[in-house]
Every structure is written in C-alpha cells, then in structure tokens.
Design a protein that fits this description.
about 65% helix; D-Maltodextrin-Binding Protein, domain 2; five-stranded mixed β-sheet; globular; 26 helices
C-alpha cells in the first residue's frame, strides 16, 4: 500500500470518528439559534412590532393575494414585478391562515429559518477559514477541542446576537434570507477549493463538483430573493469560471476535465435562468421586461414621486465613494452606537487587512465585502438612497441595508484575533485577546439594545403616520357587512385590509384585471364601498362620478394623503351603517 493511500485511509478513519461529535455540536448550535429566534419573535409579537416596516406589509400581502384573489386563473401572476418571488412563495404554506396573515407571523417564519441557517453557515465558514494552533499541530487536521471551536463560536455569536438581525428576522423582511444564501454560497465555494486541493478525494469531504453545484443553488436562491443576488452571482460566477478554467487547463485526465466542465455549465445555467425568467415574467405581467427597474413601483419611480423638484440630490447620488461611505456607516450603526460601532469597524478593517496579507488562506472571506460594492453602485446610479441619523439628512431610510455587511463584522475580527493568538506563545495572552474581542462585541451590542436597535428605530419612525391611517381605515372596514365589495388602490395602504381581516378577493384593486379598469369607469355600480386616497386612481374616479357617490367618512392624518370613503347613493341602508 502506497503512503498516499495510507494517509487517505487514516484521514478517513479519523474524520469518521469526528463526524458524530461534529453532528452533536451542530445540533446544539441549531437548538441555541432556534431558541434565540423564537425568543425574539415572541418579544416583538408581544410589543406589536412585527409589521412596522411598510415593506414587510407589502411582502406578506403579495403572498396572500396569490391564494386570495378575485380569479384563481391569475394566481401565478399575483407575485408582482418588483420584488423577487422566493420569499413570497416560501410564505404560501402559512399565509392562508388568517391569524398568521394578520399578525405577520406567516412572513416571520421564512426569515427565522434563514436566521438559523445563516448562523450555521457562519460557523461552518469560519471553521474552514481559521484553522487554529491545535488543528495545525494535529496530524489528522481535524479537531473538536474547545480551543479549535473558539473562532467559529465567537463569529457565530457576533452574527446571532446582533440586535438588528434579531429584529429583522422576526419580521417579513427578506434581508436575513438573502444573507443566509450569500453565506452558504461562500461556504460551498470554500469547500470546492478545499476538495480540489485534496485532489478530488471524497474522503476529505464532498467532491468539488458537488460543492460547486451547491454553491450555484445558493447563489440562485439569493438571486430569487434580492437583486443583490444578481450582482453576487455575476461576480462569484466570474471567479468560479476563472478557477475551473485553470483547473481544466492543468488537468491531464480527459474524463475529469469533462466532469468539471459539465458542473461549471450547470452552475452557470442555473444562475443565468433566474434573471431570464424574471425578465420574461415581468414582460408577461406588465408588457415591460424591465418593469422591475423602471416601472411605476420601482425604486426609481418611488424616488421620483417622493422627492420634491427643488430638493438637492440625496447623498451619494452619482458619487460612488460617498455612496460607499454611507453604506459603510449604516453597517457600523447596525453594530452599535457611534463610538462602539467605530471600534467594531476598526476590528473588521484590521481583520480584512490581515486576510489580504494571507490571501491564499482567506481569499473566499474577502468576498463578504461584495454588498458594499453593490450598494455603492445602487446608491450612486440606482436611485436607492440611504439616510442615517448621524449624517445629513439626519433621518432614517434603508438603514437596514447595512446589515448585509454583518458577516464582515462577524468573520474578520475573528480572523484578526485568530492570527494574533497564533503569534502569542503564552496561553494567558491568547485568552486575553479573545476576551478583548468579546468585551468589545458585548459593549457594542449592549449600547445597541440600550439605544434601541437602529432598524427598529427606522421602522418606528417611518411607520407612525402610516399605521395611524391604516388603523383608522381598518376600524371602519372591520364593521362593514361581510361579502361587501371594496374599490381601493392597494399599493398605498393594503395594511388596512390586513388589519381588518378583509379577504383580498373582496377588493377590486390595481392587481385585479379587468375588474379594475371597469370599476374605475363606473365605481358606483361595481363596488359597495369606494376608498380613495388623495391623488390615486380611485380618488380621481370618485371625483369624476361624485354625483353618483355619497361621502361617508374622511380620515386625515398629518403626513399622509387624505382618505375618503364613499358609497353609491342608491345602495341599501344596511350598507350605510357599517
């Protein structure tokens, strides 16, 4: 038996001994993350803060209207054209339940699952990125000692205990879902490289082809969740093409080259099909393939509607460097208050510099910075502003986007301390280095809890007037006779229908074609109640047919468009007293 075969068999035997222990660690970690996730959900549910974000309301109601609409034939086309559909599809098994829909828990569950998987992904990523002293000295290269687990556990704790992530994962927001896909894509990219170094030995772990396929699946999942995933898929795809091309050029065995090429083609096709399908879907629904980018509900159109003509450009507009600084500042504020956020940013930057110095060892981790590049370009050229309270214009808007850099703050400080402990000879000094990092993270997160997580502050600040309007409208709608038909533009305040428990199939809105067009032409005879917000299509139709409609109620909330509720003059008395 050759020495190489003996080494492979020895490694296999030792790895098989470690697997049960590793599964036990994974199970414990999974349980801890699940408990944290559930505790956060119960806390924010008890405080009625699951549906503060307008985007969360929109996400859960997009999913709801797939199964609750005026024509089952149009269910597939109720997913909209702006937000990508994976999150909404994931809600379908839950959103049919009225209680889960109205409370928002149906939207929380996919985010909570993603939170747990994201934490597991950080653990696995750092376990592979930061071999410790005990691992280096061991012959089998595998260790389950407490010392070897320290880097991965600390990184996972930084990720899992982040106050802003704990809040967002309890809501119907999709950032936690995308981040989980992103992390696991890099995990499998790393395992692909490791498997190749082991010359494709299955004993060292999964084959590089299988790792490449799983990386492609995770990238496609991210691309189905947020447009960030399109950018990440393009960059990681280009990296993978270069890597596999080099491997194929060096590979002497023809069969092996063909297997690698086949896996690469499958990887590329899987990720290319996502934008192709979404362009085709947009064209089928709206007649415009780029409706998600420049349609009436796109970020560009929203920015044009909500910005005064004489207003100065938002910070970072057409300036990628300024845009990157705002994105980085948002990430810093998601870690803690201004002072402690700077400390954590310093750790992350020093860790990144260290990773660049040892590029071969940490090259995969450097891809964690991709969200910064994406948002710098999006702010500069994509009409996606970020407003933070620390810098002009001193307000809250899209601050949560900074949370996509949380893996950077979880991984690179650990990289820095891990390498520092490798240089330190005394055990006491190594412990002191880890204690310093833990203390800084604790201080940062305690200030975040003390000041209220910035994502929660953002949600509260931007929802006060909207919720006041929706509460007033829901109070009226909850008392109308069951089965009544409502004509209303859902894009403004669909949350009122959700709060009142009104079935969406009872509402004629902009997603109900051709009922919508006919109802705008004759609102008095097509609906029992007409709900118009100042300036929207229903408001304009009610003005044109004011002789056939009688105003029942006006709702006025500062900062919101006035709402008027009408009923046809010939409707029976039972409808006039909701």
């Amino acid at each position: 038996m050759t020495s190489r075969k003996r080494d492979v068999l020895t490694t296999t035997a030792r790895a098989s001994e470690v697997q049960p222990a590793q599964r036990a660690y994974d199970a414990i970690l999974l349980g801890v993350l699940a408990v944290l996730s559930l505790a956060a959900l119960l806390w924010y549910y008890a405080h009625n803060e699951l549906m503060l974000y307008g985007d969360a309301v929109a996400h859960i109601n997009i999913a709801r209207r797939v199964i609750d609409n005026r024509s089952w034939l149009s269910s597939f086309f109720q997913l909209g054209t702006v937000w990508l559909p994976l999150q909404h599809v994931a809600m379908l098994p839950l959103v049919w339940n009225n209680r889960l829909w109205q409370t928002g828990i149906a939207g929380s569950v996919p985010s909570m699952i993603a939170y747990v998987l994201g934490g597991m992904g950080v653990f696995r990523l750092v376990s592979g990125l930061t071999p410790t002293l005990s691992q280096k000295k061991g012959r089998d290269g595998v260790s389950t000692s407490g010392a070897s687990l320290a880097p991965a556990l600390v990184a996972t704790a930084i990720y899992a205990f982040n106050p802003n992530l704990l809040y967002l994962q309890a809501t119907a927001m999709n950032e936690p879902i995308y981040v989980a896909f992103f992390i696991w894509a890099l995990v499998y990219l790393q395992e692909m490289l490791r498997a190749r170094v082991a010359n494709g030995s299955e004993q060292a772990g999964m084959s590089c082809e299988r790792a490449l396929e799983r990386c492609g699946i995770c990238l496609a999942g991210g691309a189905w969740t947020r447009y960030d995933g399109w950018f990440t898929g393009a960059v990681v795809g280009a990296v993978v093409v270069v890597i596999v091309a080099r491997w194929c050029r060096r590979e002497t065995e023809g069969g092996r080259r063909r297997v690698l090429a086949k896996s690469l083609i499958e990887f590329l096709l899987l990720n290319a099909l996502v934008p192709v399908f979404w362009l085709a879907y947009n064209h089928r629904v709206s007649g415009r393939a780029l409706d998600w980018a420049n349609g009436p509900y796109s970020a560009k159109a929203i920015a044009e509607r909500t910005t005064r003509r004489d207003a100065p450009p938002y910070p970072g507009k057409d300036h990628p460097v300024t845009a990157a600084l705002y994105s980085l500042k948002a990430a810093q504020l998601n870690m803690g208050n201004v002072a402690w956020g700077r400390v954590m940013l310093a750790f992350a930057l020093l860790g990144t510099a260290t990773a660049c110095w040892q590029f071969d060892r940490y090259k995969v981790a450097l891809l964690l910075w991709l969200p910064l590049i994406f948002y710098a370009l999006s702010i500069a050229y994509g009409s996606v502003p970020i407003f933070i309270p620390a810098w002009w214009p001193f307000s809250y808007y899209n601050v949560r986007y900074g949370l996509e850099l949380l893996p950077v703050f979880a991984v690179f400080p650990v990289v820095l301390v891990t390498l520092l402990t490798e240089w330190l000879n005394k055990r006491r000094r190594r412990i002191a280095a880890w204690a310093l990092l833990v203390a800084c993270v604790s201080g940062s997160y305690l200030t975040a809890w003390g000041d209220t997580p910035i994502t929660l502050r953002e949600a509260r600040a931007n929802s006060r007037t909207r919720i006041a309007m929706e509460d007033g409208l829901a109070s009226f709608l909850s008392h109308i006779p069951k089965g009544s038909t409502i004509l209303m533009y859902q894009g403004s305040h669909v949350g009122a229908l959700q709060r009142a428990g009104i079935p969406l199939k009872s509402v004629i809105s902009e997603v109900s074609h051709p009922d919508w067009e006919w109802a705008l032409l004759d609102p008095a005879h097509k609906a029992d109640y007409v709900v118009g917000f100042q300036g929207d299509p229903v408001w304009m139709a009610a003005r044109e047919h004011r002789g056939e409609l009688q105003e029942m109620l006006t709702i006025t909330v500062p900062g919101q468009e006035q709402c008027k509720i009408f009923i046809a003059t010939g409707k029976p008395a039972s409808l006039r007293k909701p």
